[in-house]
Amino acid sequence: MRRTSIPQSHRLAARLVPASRRRRGASGVCPDDVARGAEAASPPPQRRQRRGAGPGRARQSGGGAGGAGAGACSLAAGKARRGMELSQLLCAASAALLLLWLPLRARADEHEHTYQDKEEVVLWMNTVGPYHNRQETYKYFSLPFCVGSKKSISHYHETLGEALQGVELEFSGLDIKFKDDVMQTTYCEIDLDKAKRDAFVYAIKNHYWYQMYIDDLPIWGIVGEADENGEDYYLWTYKKLEIGYNGNRIVDVNLTSEGKVKLVPNTKIQMSYSVKWKKSDVKFEDRFDKYLDPSFFQHRIHWFSIFNSFMMVIFLVGLVSMILMRTLRKDYARYSKEEEMDDMDRDLGDEYGWKQVHGDVFRPSSHPLIFSSLIGSGCQIFAVSLIVIVVAMIEDLYTERGSMLSTAIFVYAATSPVNGYFGGSLYARQGGRRWIKQMFIGAFLIPAMVCGTAFFINFIAIYYHASRAIPFGTMVAVCCICFFVILPLNLVGTILGRNLSGQPNFPCRVNAVPRPIPEKKWFMEPAVIVCLGGILPFGSIFIEMQWTSFLSAASTAIYVYMYSFYYYFFKTKMYGLFQTSFYFGYMAVFSTALGIMCGAIGYMGTSAFVRKIYTNVKID
Predict the structure, then answer these.
(1) S-S: 129 plus which of 57, 137, 230, 518, CB 3.0-4.6 Å?
(2) Where are the beta strands (DSSP E) in 483-531?
């Protein structure tokens, strides 16, 4: 949900500026003030708090020759029956995928984004939470805000991603109609007792911000501010909305926070709002373009760092490729001279170089069941990453709440045959016999890791009463996806992989007796290679090719996770058990998935390279 949440670091704070510092017309909070504690500095008057949109939408609640012949017929019938069962399984899995996708892309009439004059426009209140802890969010009305008098409208999670990301839309109760201006109007009154004042003071001390939606466009605001001495606390009570329209569509929304009122116990605070409609030239299709503008969120693209990294990769790839090509050319030249010798001279000579391990390099790996499951999962993660990136570039997923996560879940389920195919075929080529167990491990390896982490963090979220707590129904839905979509499709891929590419096709035979491994230098040991491989993900060829090639590339994830500690302590101002658990828990999931993907790519590349060089050499 890229643009539907507040941006990273302290960027959006420059857009959430209190009105007292902006000629009584600013929206949002300044990052400098947030960093200081309670003040709010103001940007130029034209910089107002902006809003974006989201995908999930809110819907109104609404024996003998005869025996031989019979046996042959029975065998043919058995094959035909198995073929029909496989086809039925495929159809069932496809139907399950379709059922999974339909709720992810559901639309209601309310969400056509077209309005008639005087038609109701709903203002949804989403979440509120500390500015520095982006994932620690709570329902808007968990703070003692009052609600408008208009009849309530219920909202349900329309997409799975919306539910998993803690979107909690609640009706504001404000009466807003299309193209109908509203002067400053009091919509409710807060009877501020000591408990409510303490709640607001706590929120202001922790720089709480809130999010609202109009026509799927998000608006951000700040709860209040403290004076310079931190003794008195003030609540923003006046929401000044300015809505831009083009024809019968809403294309822009800005919020100005005004009406700073001091929090004094046993007083009444009136909450008010106003709506100003302005004609805009912005096209409906372009209404999210301002959120992609770096000047809006003040995102700085580090072009020099990107170029530097790109050139470093090109240099390293070219350097390693040149060294390998020179070495291989020399080896090929020596081996070609041997082919010109007669059989007597060839038998008297000893094999040398990488040719002498040709009988062991394709030996099955230790623990082939786990290894093949990791390779299959890595190939699936790579496919999911590639497809989601392409879809995000084409479909503008940032415009819809939870759509990025929903799309990733759907694509992961749809690409389960990739996992089964590569994992199952590799396990079969390595002589594995417990293919059903391998299929189960491959299918549930990533879901179990993600769900286990989410389950642990969910306990903390429930304790904090945070909106990130995953509902029980959503957990059941995720489990159903795993058992009724991912598992059957993984089974289909495993069967296809075993039948289409499960036969060993090594370019040279594997010796029955393993060749003794000569003693190596300390820096050639697999443990050292694995550690160094994460820094420069290039490896060499060893007799234990499989695990070394996998772990050398996968160790990149270790350095990524180590950097996350540096980023947490020196680049952010996160605090608290919930945010810390959320950050390090899901960073561990991300790093593990990255390691599995990189490891699978490393193994596949190494395997293709080794096969190529041994195919080009004549081996008796």
Answers:
(1) 137
(2) none
pLDDT tens readout for residues 531-543: 766 555 433 334 4
322-343 per-residue burial string, b: 16 or more CB within 10 A, e: under 16: eeeeeebeebeeebeeeeeeee
Specify the range with the lowest mean pLDDT, choosing from 80-84, 247-251, 278-282: 80-84
Residues 226 and 317 in one domain: no
Helix (H, G, I), strand (E, B) or coil at 460: helix
| Residue numbers of the domain that contains 314 | 299-332
Count of domains forming the chain = 3
389, pLDDT greater than 80: yes
**Comparison of pLDDT for 430 and 354, the residue scoring more:** 430
Q: What is the helix, strand, coil percentage profile of the chain, to 5?
A: 55, 15, 35
Distances (CA, A) of 123 to 57, 145, 147, 237, 543: 12, 15, 12, 16, 65
Same domain flag for 432 and 328: no
Render pLDDT for 22-70 as a digit per residue (tens, 0 to 9).
333 333 333 333 333 333 333 333 333 333 333 333 333 333 333 334 3
Instruction: Report the sign of the C-alpha dihedral through residues 398, 403, 408, 414, in that order.
Output: negative
Q: Give the closest residue to 93 by CA, choosing from 496, 498, 492, 495.
A: 492
Q: Kindly report the backbone phi and psi dihedral angles of residue 465, in degrees, each rounded to the nearest multiple of 5, phi listed first.
A: 55, 40
Give the ranges where 159-302 is alpha helix by DSSP (H): 160-164, 194-205, 289-292, 294-297
**Does 148 share its domain with 243?**
yes
pLDDT value of position 471: 87
Beta-carbon contacts of 491 under 8 Å, excluding residues fewer than 6 positions away, are 89, 420, 439, 443
Closest by CA to 474, choosing from 453, 451, 445, 449, is 451
> What is the reported pLDDT for 533?
65
Q: What distance in Å separates the CA atoms of residue 182 and residue 172, rounded to the nearest whole number? A: 16
Cα gap 111→160, rounded to integer Å: 18
Closest alpha carbon to 163 in 111, 104, 109: 104
Same domain, 267 and 133: yes
φ/ψ of 9, rounded to 5, equals 60, -135
> Do 271 and 319 share a structural domain?
no
Q: Tell me, yes or no, whether 34 lies in a domain.
A: no
Hey, what are 185's tokens?
Answer: 């109007």
Question: For residue 405, what are its two tokens?
Answer: 């996560």
Q: How far is residue 132's CA from residue 211's CA, in Å, rounded to a whole number?
A: 15
**Contact, 69 vs 464, CB < 8 A?**
no
Number of alpha carbons in the 13 Å side-chain half-sphere of residue 278: 11
